[in-house]
Write a structure and sequence with these properties.
Helix content is 27%, strand content 24%. It is of the alpha/beta class and 249 residues long. The chain has a single domain, classed as Rossmann fold (3-Layer(aba) Sandwich). The strands form two sheets. A six-stranded mixed beta sheet has the order 6-7-8-3-9-10, sandwiched between helices. Strands 2-1-4-5 form a four-stranded antiparallel beta sheet, covered by helices on one side.
Length: 249
C-alpha cells in the first residue's frame, strides 16, 4: 500500500523562481493496484514518483509505504519495499557483468553483501525460467555481458530483475519511451504479469496513449501539481481511447 497525505514539493521555496511541483496531493494506492499516471510536461507526475521513491523528500506532508512512515527516508532506505525501472535502458544494469551476475546482484540488493556472489544451480535455473517467459531467446545466453544486448532486451531484463528480491512496490518511469514497438509491448506485458503474479503495487508514468488505455486498473491525471482526474477500474472500462486525448495536455 502506498499513501500520500497532503504532500507538497516546492523547489526554491521563498525565492523568485519558486516552483510548486506537487501541491497538497492526497493519494491512496492499495496492494495489487496497477495505477497509470498521465499529464503534460510539468504537471508534477515525475516529482510524485520521486517522492514515493524517496529520491526527493517532501517539503511537507507524509508518505507511507506498506503501513510504515517513510517520509524522511532516502531512496536507498526504501529499497526494501521499492523497485524502479527508469526510461533509459542502461540505468538498471551493469554493462560489464553477465546477465546471470546482474540477476544475482539484483536478488541480493537489499541484503548484506558477502565476498561471494553465490550463484547456485537452482538460482541459475530460476533465472533461466524467468527469462524464458520474455520470448527473447536470452535464457541460454546467461554468460553474455549485459552491455552487448539491445536497449529493449536490457529493459525487459531490468524489469525481471526488479522483482528478484521480493519488493512490494514497482515504479515504472516511462519504461518504454526509448524502445521499439515490439520491445515496448514485451516490457508492458511483463509488467502487467508481474503485478498480478506477485500482487505488486505498480505505478506507471507514461506519455503513451495506448499503454495508458491498455494497462492498469486505474488512471490518474495530474496538472499543475494536483490530481484532477482519478478513474477506477469500472469507470475505465467505459472509456474509449479517444477519451484520453485531452489528458495528455
Amino acid at each position: 500500500m502506498v499513501q500520500l497525505v497532503s504532500v507538497h514539493q516546492i523547489y526554491n521555496k521563498g525565492r523568485a523562481n519558486e516552483v510548486i511541483a506537487v501541491n497538497g496531493v492526497d493519494l491512496h494506492i492499495a496492494d495489487g493496484e496497477f495505477v497509470v499516471i498521465v499529464g503534460s510536461n510539468g504537471s508534477g507526475k515525475s516529482t510524485l514518483l520521486n517522492l514515493i521513491a524517496g529520491s526527493v523528500l517532501p517539503t511537507s506532508g507524509k508518505v507511507n509505504i506498506d503501513g510504515q512512515d517513510v517520509t524522511r527516508l532516502a531512496d536507498y532506505n526504501r529499497s526494501q519495499w521499492i523497485a524502479r525501472v527508469f526510461q533509459n535502458p542502461l540505468s538498471g544494469t551493469a554493462s560489464e557483468l553477465s546477465i546471470l551476475d546482474n540477476f544475482r546482484l539484483a536478488a541480493i540488493r537489499t541484503q548484506t553483501k558477502g565476498l561471494a556472489i553465490g550463484i547456485t544451480d537452482s538460482f541459475k535455473q530460476k533465472v533461466k525460467d524467468r527469462i524464458a517467459t520474455l520470448g527473447m531467446g536470452l535464457e541460454d545466453k546467461l554468460e553474455q555481458p549485459m552491455g552487448t544486448l539491445s536497449g529493449g532486451q536490457r529493459q525487459a531484463l531490468t524489469l525481471l530483475m526488479s522483482v528478484m528480491d521480493s519488493c512490494k512496490v514497482l515504479l515504472l518511469d516511462e519504461p518504454t519511451a526509448a524502445l521499439d514497438p515490439r520491445s515496448a509491448e514485451i516490457v508492458m506485458h511483463t509488467a502487467d504479469k508481474l503485478t498480478k503474479d506477485f500482487n505488486l503495487t505498480t505505478i506507471l508514468i507514461t506519455h503513451n496513449l495506448k499503454d495508458a488505455f491498455g494497462y492498469g486498473n486505474r488512471i490518474i491525471q495530474m496538472a499543475e501539481g494536483v490530481t484532477i482526474k482519478d478513474v477506477n477500474s469500472s469507470q475505465k472500462s467505459k472509456l474509449k481511447q479517444t477519451d484520453l486525448f485531452d489528458w495528455f495536455g
